[in-house]
């Protein structure tokens, strides 16, 4: 299960209150008054988006399912998305590289027309360095075959996890892309379909801003 809520800034609260009132009036067959409240509530929500104050939070509970990348990101991806920035310190191990690959596959499949993906991650300085570098190189070459440029950058001080789309949406996941649990077995449900894969407990914060900071 997951809990979702809008940010508690005054503009969002006012919009929600107005829309709730509209629903109440609608149920009482007071359609003219309800229409006015719907219009005012929608205007308030649009103002929140224009000001970059939109905030939605999703709390993914331990062992929850239904949170594949497609399910989580699809409403924020459209044909205006051409550039994506990912900050995630842990794109190192095999399963983390596969997670990043799945995320890239989603960007290719969705209606967006992504041309550039920026990845800022930390460099594995241990025994997994070759695996990380060769895996990311292969992903970069594969993306290039689909007309997408992957720009890699490493940082030894990165801690935050954040995904940004150039249409203004910003998604911060507490665990980054690595919020799925290991499947019970190779032939168990959830091994291929990540909507059926249990998740670790984490929080997803979604913002909208008119200007997306570049890495």
Structure characterization notes:
Pfam families: MIT, MIT_C. Residues 211-215 have low confidence and may be disordered. The longest helix is centred in the first third of the chain and has 20 residues, at 31-50. The protein has an 8-stranded mixed beta sheet, with helices on one face. The protein is built from 5 helices and 8 strands. The two termini are 33 Å apart. The chain is α+β, with helices and mostly antiparallel strands and 215 residues long.
What characteristics describe this protein?
215 residues, 8-stranded mixed sheet, alpha+beta, MIT domain-containing protein 1 isoform X3, MIT_domain_contain_protein1, MIT_dom_sf, elongated, disordered C terminus
Shape: elongated
Query: How many distinct beta strands?
Result: 8
N-end to C-end Cα span: 33 Å
Quickly count the helices: 5
**Secondary-structure element series:** EHHEHEHEHEEEE
InterPro entries: MIT_dom, MIT_dom_sf, MIT_domain_contain_protein1, MITD1_C, MITD1_C_sf
Pfam families: MIT, MIT_C
Organism: Erinaceus europaeus
Protein name: MIT domain-containing protein 1 isoform X3
